[in-house]
Amino acid sequence: MIRKAFWTLVALVGAFAVGGVALHRGETINAMWIVVAALCIYSLGYRFYSAWVAAKVLSVDPTRATPALRLNNGRDFMPTHRWIVFGHHFAAIAGPGPLIGPTLAAQFGYLPGTLWILVGGVLGGCVQDMTILFLSTRRNGRSLGQMARDELGPVGGFAAMLGTLTIMIILIAVLGLVVVNAMKHSPWATSTVFATIPIAVLVGLYLRNIRPGRVLEGSLIGLALLLFAVVGGGWVDSHPALRELFNLQGKPLAWFVIGYGFIAAVLPVWLLLAPRDYLSTFLKLGTVLLLIVAVILMRPEIHMPAVTQFIDGSGPIFGGALFPFVFITIACGAISGFHALVSSGTTPKLIGNESDVRLIGYGSMMLESVVAVMAMIAATLLEPGVYFAINSAPGIVGATAEAAVTTISSWGFPVTVDQMAFLAKEMGESTLFARTGGAPSLAVGMASIFSSAFGESMLAIWYHFAIMFEAVFILTTLDAGTRVGRFMLQDALGHVWKPMGETSWYPSVLISSGLVVAGWGYFLYIGVVDPNGGINILWPLFGIANQLLAGIALSVATGILIKQGKLRYSWVTGVPLAWLAIITTSATWEKVVSDDPRIGFLSAANQMAAKLASGAMSPEQAAVAPQLIFNQRLDAVLAVLLSAILWVVIADMVRVSLRAIRGQPVPPNSEAPHVHISSIKLGAEAA
Amino acid sequence: MSMQRLTSFLGLAWSMIRSLATDDAYDKYLAHHAHAHAGSPPMSRRAFYLKQQQSKWTGVSRCC
Predict the structure, then answer these.
(1) Residue A216 domain-assigned (yes or no)
(2) Cβ A665 vs Cβ A659: under 8 Å
(3) B63 is a domain residue
(4) What is the reported pLDDT for A112?
(5) Which of chain B's termini has less CB crowding within 10 Å, N or C?
(6) What is the structure's pLDDT at B50?
(7) How far apart are the C-alpha atoms of A432 and A425, rounded to whole Å?
(8) What is the helix, strand, coil percentage profile of chain B, to 5?
(9) Phi/psi at A30 (nearest 5 deg)?
(10) What radius of gyration do chain A's Cα atoms show?
(11) Is-contact A189 A204, C-beta < 8 A?
(12) What integer pLDDT is reported at residue A683 of this predicted model?
């Protein structure tokens, strides 16, 4: 009875808060409205929907022995406490994506993105993560690609592999671009980010040679050095000669990131990748907690309107209307296909009991969704004029500060040159105009929250701490992604010529790593030379690729449900799948055929080609124009390819499902046989 | 009593932190090894650490 009353109260408070967030039309709204709405929706989603899905749709069986119990080898297969697995799984799924997507989508106002994060998370992303985690746990921790092959057939398996490789390339390119844009002409940020590399190597040596495997010690030493590097960057910035050394253009920084990616991919993991990951994980968990605490302590006012005029598609940060682009821009935080790869990787091998998949799969994604909400708050608490000045490329608002403030103020978001100069000075930067990519504006937002909660005088330190924090885990994703891409490529090339498939044969390592780095390096480089900022092109492509991967994961899940005779529950994964198919296909359609050169790849290419032919371009513009034209056409092909992959997988799933419904033969259920939990426990005692 | 509770709580928190950081992975491996492969010598701490890192970074273990 008390329980019922409690949940009714949560539902009422949640409905009231969502209504408040949605209908509020004043000058500002307090961020606590969003926080309360989010907490109520997550609680209800977890308490009721996830429990129902686990019990009815997945038929979670707590008496069934998990692979961690059956195949326990003391290393990768090992039953582990559910909160520990939760921590590992959350650290694995939460990267820079949920921070950047909402920051960019804030150009539509705070409302559309926030609603999509909440609804997409509770009904889409969390369900996907939990379902794939469960299915993989039932299949001894098989990967998404293997499950697609086993349960649907070779076509689905191949499409999943191709989709994964493509998303990896685009993801790394766009994240590389975010880091380059954050370091461009910022000696403080650049020197701090550079310093993270030797610090990671030092920690790597410590963990291998001095105190093997003492991760806590090594990480604490590394974290202390990182904080020192943030402060040290300030000294570099105030030293005239050192300042010039680290005051770099976009192009050399892009080459640096490309070279770094290649070296990191071929070095032994213990030297750079593993220690960097430990540091980024501690930073990530610490900063996310700090951000949540600071937002609740400070209860900042949101200055962005609920909905801006840019829902019509004329937005300065990326072109495209609210539908479908808000759903493409925010992938991580609402639904992210990439999580399906992690949920079918290390995590299922650690699960001690099937009933834990609810907390670990659904719960971790809920927390990632909270991170996305926090990023949305950090972006929208800025004065909108400031937000647009930081995030708009010079190709859109004008190259000079005066031109930019005039354009932005004319949209109804007043901002002045003095205001921006003062803000830049406070943050320890030379300018904050046209710092596209989301990282700088997020850092300004986080710095204002942190400094008002924990010390007003340290804005510049907090700003560069936030930049360092983002850069550290972007570089981790870059290393790790390049390695995964390399293994996939080696696997594929091994079918063509055997020796290429040997993962430790050095020529194969160098060639395949070089190919992967060249793939993302190309998109990164073009993004840097593009006067419209590159993010405008790459982020939607990344969103489409990520949603495509989620579509593949949900297709596999839906197919399995139907094969197992659960047709009436198949809407649980089928409805999110249908929604993803609609948004990715319509986004692809617009990105390819739209007449607006800010949206359509082809019309942008044609417009540029016409301008080049008529001689209306400056010599610098004309020099890069052929590359940009080729790239726009390539992007169009890529977008079509991505959508085609998704439809092939959906068609394959429908084919297998129809056969299953008609009672025709289908690929057999690939679940590991049922073993009762007690027989393992008895076996362990007897041994 | 309350002191005892506090120490046991702190002990639990500390072991959770060690677990999250994978500081206790080698101890767990030794325990498993002693029980499942008694007789054969276990890996050294360093060899175990390097092997763990290698297998962790062969698949997808980090996301966007």
Answers:
(1) no
(2) yes
(3) no
(4) 97
(5) N
(6) 94
(7) 9
(8) 65, 0, 35
(9) -75, 140
(10) 25
(11) no
(12) 58
Closest alpha carbon to A335 in A576, A556, A674: A576
User: Is residue B1 a part of any domain in this protein?
Assistant: no
Distance, CA of A441 to CA of A378 (rounded, Å): 9
> Burial, A72: exposed, middle or buried (Cβ in 10 Å; 0-12, 13-18, 19+)?
buried
Reply yes or no on whether the pLDDT at B36 is more than 90.
Answer: no
Contact A432, A185 (CB under 8 A): no
Nearest to A213 among B19, B25, B32 (CB): B25
Nearest to A395 by CA among A309, A316, A310: A316
Q: How far apart are CA A85 and CA A65, in angstroms?
A: 17
> Using the beta-carbon criterion (under 8 Å), do A84 and B20 form an inter-chain contact?
yes
| Number of structural domains in chain B | 1
Closest Cβ–Cβ partner in A80, A81, A269 for B57:
A269
Q: How many domains does chain A have?
A: 1
In a domain, A6, yes or no: no
Task: For A100-116, write each residue's pLDDT tens digit.
Answer: 999 999 999 999 999 99
Cβ pair A597, A603 in contact under 8 A: yes
Residue B12 inside a domain? The answer is: no
List chain A residues with pLDDT less than 70: 456, 681-687
- Residue with token string 């890192």: B53
Give the chain B residue whose CA is nearest to the CA of A486. Answer: B58
Q: What distance in Å separates the CA atoms of residue A580 and residue A585, rounded to the nearest whole number? A: 8
Q: Is B32 close to A342, i.e. CB distance below 8 A?
A: no
Distance CA A526, CA A533 (A): 10
Question: Is residue B8 assigned to a domain?
Answer: no
Report the C-alpha gap between A102 and A372 in whole angstroms: 6
Measured N-to-C along each axis, helices A364-380 and A126-138 cross at an angle, to the nearest 10 degrees, of 150
CB B52 within 8 A of CB A75: yes
Optimal mutation site among A85, A270, A281, interface B, most CBs of chain B within 10 A: A270
Residue A590 lies in a domain: yes
User: Cβ B63–A338 below 8 Å, yes or no?
Assistant: yes
SS3 letters across A488-557: HHHHHHHHHCHHHHCCCCHHHHHHHHHHHHHHHHHHHHHHHHCCCCCHHHHHHHHHHHHHHHHHHHHHHH
A517: Cβ–Cβ under 8 A, 6 or more apart, which residues? Answer: A258, A261, A262, A265, A482
Residues in chain A closer than 8 A to B20 (CB atoms): 84, 87-88
Name the residue facing B64 among A78, A477, A503 (closest C-beta).
A477
Q: What is the CATH number of the domain that holds A296?
A: 1.20.1740
Tokens of A667: 């690929």
- Which tokens in the block code for residue A445? 């937002």
Residue A194 lies in a domain: no
| Residue A302, beta-bridge partner list | A29
Of A81, A97, A213, the CB nearest to B49: A213
Q: Which domain holds residue A165?
A: 59-74+110-185+248-677
Q: What are the tens digits of pLDDT across the range A235-244?
A: 999 999 999 9
Domain membership of residue B45 as a residue range: 23-57
Query: Where do we find the tokens 């209307």?
Result: A321
The residue among B61 and A677 whose pLDDT is bigger is A677
